[in-house]
Design a protein that fits this description.
- The complex is a heterodimer of chains A (about 300) and B (about 270).
- Chain A has one domain: Ribonuclease Z/Hydroxyacylglutathione hydrolase-like (Metallo-beta-lactamase, Chain A, 4-Layer Sandwich), CATH 3.60.15.10.
- In chain A, helix 6 packs antiparallel against helix 7 and helix 8 packs antiparallel against helix 9.
- A 7-stranded mixed β-sheet of chain A has the order 1-2-3-4-5-6-7, with no helix packed on it. A 5-stranded mixed β-sheet of chain A has the order 8-9-10-11-12, with helices on one face.
- With about 300 residues, chain A is of the alpha/beta class.
- In chain B, strands 1-8-7-4-5-14-13-16-17 form a 9-stranded mixed β-sheet, with no helix packed on it. A 6-stranded antiparallel β-sheet of chain B has the order 2-3-6-15-10-9, with no helix packed on it.
- Chain B is built from 3 helices and 17 strands.
- Chain B is mainly beta.
- Classes of the chains: A alpha/beta (about 300), B mainly beta (about 270).
Chain lengths: ~300, ~270
């Protein structure tokens, strides 16, 4: 029995090694030429290889735009293989929707002489401020092997307001938003299929993470609701097909967060008191509530006490 | 046990091995390497005794947000003229600037309890060292895990932080009672930048820009002096206690690393009949 177990251990390790080399990320074609990999609704750990964010790509007549690259060079490589399983057209653009490591640390896999790295005009500063810290934490979040070779890649094309990219017979519109989830959020609109890549401006089922400005986020949601989208890819969570209804849960959470924190501030309460009490009615409505609600409250508190 | 089940087991064993070996290079609980380097630089050869029963450190076991971690140094005995806490040093071992702040207090604070918000860069020990009025040093410490996920000890909104630079608030308790310690909350809007960020365009480090000194007085009497550094969160925040039997005015002077001076004046009204 013990030797049998040993044998299976060996077989298992061979299979795992093989799968690591041969696999590409699973992608779904959600519309003609539009592909999405749906990440797990978890926090990043070595056991899930940091595969937690939605990643995608759009294929035109003469080039491809990749939208976010995952938590590590490992995931970046896997995503690149997924692109190659669909098309051999050059990957001209790598679009980073914001600074967070689960969206940008696979960038290095796409570095090439013709690759343009695109981001919000404030992305560069945010990468400088946070990049070294994310790199330091990476072996802990995705494991030492997957973290190897990771680099922070500075954007080479900055989007101030809106920029249109031509992929050949297909135009995509990139829009930078006022500070919300972060101070460098960027969405991608594919007019041909009326598909919106909402970046982390939209979380579905998983609790939204506030790392920018709460009032700004609530106001951005109104702008997003006005987009005539048929399909919306959130930064985290399943595909949304009813729009703008698909953002109402998130709007409710962010509104409760704002109102609860304001109430504590109005009574001269402390940040810790707010962290213990705000949004508790939302507890059962979100995945990862326990990991992020207190953090959201502290961020909201530090912002709203200056109102 | 079917073969498929065994295979799963094998895979599971391998996964968990992978998790075990990917130990981060961060400090573990009880790791004194960094403290042994820092300690002589701050306190020389002075003896530091166990501070349990005198002070306590109120901090989360895991930083929720690396940029804004609320912590309190709780004094377990009141400040009295013959025995009081004169100075509190706050240390975060694994931060780039481990001596987070030094607080200078007086017997008139009533209570030496202090709260602030700090940046926490990594898994670390966090310490409060109190210097008593007789010169004796006592310490309490706690181990804290770094924030997970996408949190970073950096600004959330770099433009907004600069836009309200130097604004100041003093939030009193709902009632200031005569002769009893009241807790006041001072907030100063400032980016409190670390200077550890590399500007890829200029190939230089962006210079640090942080509050280096805060002096608070009440009708001319010293209340609290703080020497903070870059480990204090953006928009530095301090709760402190003060005892007064009459209405008066707090004057606050803050100086940043560019020698810009910010001032604020905050009248306090003692509750009538209290």
């Amino acid at each position: 029995m013990r030797s049998l177990l040993f044998l299976f251990l060996i077989i298992g390790s061979v299979l795992l090694t093989f799968s690591a080399w041969a696999d590409s990320l699973s992608v779904t074609s959600i519309a003609p030429g539009v592909y999405v990999h749906f990440g797990k609704q978890e926090d990043a750990f070595p056991f899930n290889r940091g595969d937690i964010a939605n990643l995608g790509f759009i294929v035109g007549d003469n080039s491809v735009a990749v939208i976010d690259t995952g938590s590590s060079p490992y995931l970046g490589d896997q995503l690149k293989r997924a692109v190659r399983s669909v098309t051999n057209l050059p990957i001209r653009y790598v679009i980073n929707t914001h600074v967070h490591p689960d969206h940008v640390l696979g960038d290095v896999s796409f570095v090439g002489t013709d690759t343009v790295f695109v981001g919000n005009a404030r992305l560069s500063a945010a990468l400088q401020a946070r990049g070294p810290y994310y790199m330091n934490a990476l072996p802990r979040t995705v494991g030492e092997d997957d973290a190897k070779g990771a680099q922070v890649i500075a954007p080479t094309l900055s989007v101030q307001d809106e920029t249109t990219l031509d992929l050949g017979g297909r135009k995509i519109v990139l829009k930078s938003w006022p500070t919300a989830h972060t101070d460098n959020d960027l969405t991608v609109w594919d007019a041909a299929t009326q598909t919106l890549f909402a970046s982390d401006l939209l979380f579905v089922n998983r609790i939204p993470v506030l790392d920018g400005n709460l009032s700004g986020w609530l106001s951005d949601l109104e702008g997003m609701a006005a987009i005539p989208a048929k399909l919306v890819v959130p930064g985290h969570g399943p595909l949304v097909t009813e729009w703008p209804q698909g953002l109402s849960d998130q709007r409710r959470y962010l509104t409760v967060l704002r109102d609860d924190v304001r109430a504590v501030i109005a009574h001269h309460g402390t940040m810790e008191q707010a962290m213990d009490s705000a949004c508790l009615g939302e507890k059962d409505k979100w995945l990862l509530f326990g990991l992020y609600n207190r953090r959201n409250v502290s961020a909201a508190f530090a912002e709203l006490e200056w109102e | 046990m079917g073969s498929r089940c065994l295979l799963l087991l094998a895979a599971l064993a391998l996964w968990s091995c992978g998790v075990c070996t990917s130990v981060a290079r961060a400090a573990e609980a009880g790791d004194l390497t960094r403290w042994n380097e820092i300690r002589p630089l701050i306190f020389g050869a002075a003896e530091i005794e166990n501070g349990e029963g005198i002070i306590a450190l109120d901090a989360p076991t895991r930083a929720e947000d690396a940029a804004v971690v609320p912590i309190s140094i709780v004094a377990l005995a009141p400040q009295s003229p013959d025995r009081f806490i004169a100075k509190v040093s706050l240390v975060i071992d694994e931060n780039p600037a481990p001596l987070v702040a030094v607080f200078h207090l007086t017997p008139l604070n009533g209570s030496a309890t202090l709260s602030t918000r700090v940046r926490v860069n990594d898994y670390t020990n966090i310490r409060a060292i109190a210097q008593m009025s007789d010169g004796k040093l006592v310490m309490v410490s706690r181990y804290m895990k770094a924030a997970g996920g996408c949190s970073a000890p950096a600004s959330k909104d770099q433009q907004a932080a600069l836009a309200r630079l130097g604004k100041m608030k003093m939030i009193p308790p709902e009632r200031v009672m005569s002769g009893q310690p009241s807790v006041f909350h001072l907030l100063i809007s400032h980016p409190n930048n670390s200077g550890l960020q590399f500007d890829q365009m200029s190939r230089n480090y962006i210079p640090a820009h942080y509050i280096k000194l805060i002096q608070i007085t009440f009708d001319g009497q010293p209340v609290l002096t703080v020497e903070p550094n870059i480990s204090i969160s953006e928009d530095p925040s301090f709760h402190f206690a003060w005892v007064t039997d009459h209405s008066g005015t707090f004057e606050v002077k803050a100086v940043d690393s560019r020698d810009t001076v910010f001032t604020g004046s905050f009248p306090v009204t003692v509750a009538p009949g209290s």
